[in-house]
Design a protein that fits this description.
By secondary structure, the protein is an alpha/beta fold. Helices cover 55% and strands 12% of the residues. It comes from Halochromatium salexigens.
Amino acid sequence: MPADSHSAETASPKRDDDSPWKEALERFFPEFLALLFPAVHAEIDWSKGMQFLDKEFQQLVQEAKTTRRYADKLVGVTLRDGTAVWVLIHVEVQGEPETAFAERMYTYHDKIRDRYQVPVASLAVLADTDHRFRPQQFSTALWDCCVDFRFPMVKLLDYAAPERWAELEASDNVFALVVMAQIRAKLTKDAETLKGWKFHLIRLMYERGYEQARILELFRLIDWMIRLPKALEADFRQTLYAYEEQQRMPYVTTVEQAGIDKGMKQGMKKGVQQGMKQGMKQGLQQGEARTLLRLLDQKFGPETAQVHRERIENAELEQLDTWLGRILSAETPETIFH
């Protein structure tokens, strides 16, 4: 469905893109580097710990006189040879790419070295949706006086390609779920389809067997990144509750801090006790069936979706989940349903 056809009731609410990234970097910094910058991760002695230098970075930002908020982090680590270094992570998550991004990276990098006299590595993560926006260096020159600043860059949009997405789905790195949530939040315009992706990521989180504390951390980040309209959010929470009851792992729905409305939770629990559990399971199946049909329509056309509609609508939940996992990398419809 085209983005301009959405009504106000079905459009997803405005996301706070910066804050979840800041929290994700603090909670999963080693995993972040291992997934997106593995060569950097391999050079760090993680047994020496790490230090988030928020005070130092805030002083730097004030000196740079920028009024725009960014999901940037400055982290102190120790290399395997014992050298103490700082890693400056720049995350560009705005809807529109920033033309001065590379220059801002150079400015911050130079200010850190000048003020604190420490080795600095600046790494860039681009979470925007412009395929052409790929800054990797800042250069300036006057006569024979030149500055050529180059930096490693990762474009999250590249991971939306079927083969790269399959790598994220198969990864045991916890940060892969954060990246997948960011990609789907940015690229999925239809709110109903986005709800399907949100539940798919939550199911992946559970299936990986994480402990309760980690599940709650990840849920909060995914929930923060993928915002749904009010009615669809209520439907999603109901589906999630039914799934947790089925798995006998009600981690999210039993914790107030996870952001679930107490009255809604109690109402859903009462409904289950009154025999609604089967109905919610059917709702879960119907939701995944609708998501799969939408994706088939978008990828292979409405005729293909119509051909497979009856089979999809009558499939069991486990079978639907398997087909959803195949659709992104499928080159033909037959490879989904084999």
